Amino acid sequence: MKLIHDELQFDVEDLQDLDDTFSAIICAGLYAFKARIVERGDILIPSKIWAKYVSDYRKLTEEQEREATVEWLSIIDQMIEGFKPESVMTKTDKMEGRCLFAEYFHNLWS
Question: Which of 36, 46, 49, 74 would staple 107 via disulfide (CB 3.0–4.6 Å)?
Fold first, then answer.
């Protein structure tokens, strides 16, 4: 796969197994995303996670915020594992990571 004139072009080898091709891209993207948000210290927690701790996220205690942050980073780790080619996870666990990716896809912004 390569980028030519701002257009992504796939090699024949890339098309033989799109699961492997896309998994490598998604895994690398999730790694970079997590590194960026951790480095910046500006981890934006999805509202679905906030709701588990308090009804109004503006009234969150430091402990609740810490717990929500740990939960979100753990979810990201599960997503990463779901797309790792060399993962030793079971198929069920890999599928869980991929389902989390789909569930939280719109929360992957920083």
Answer: 46
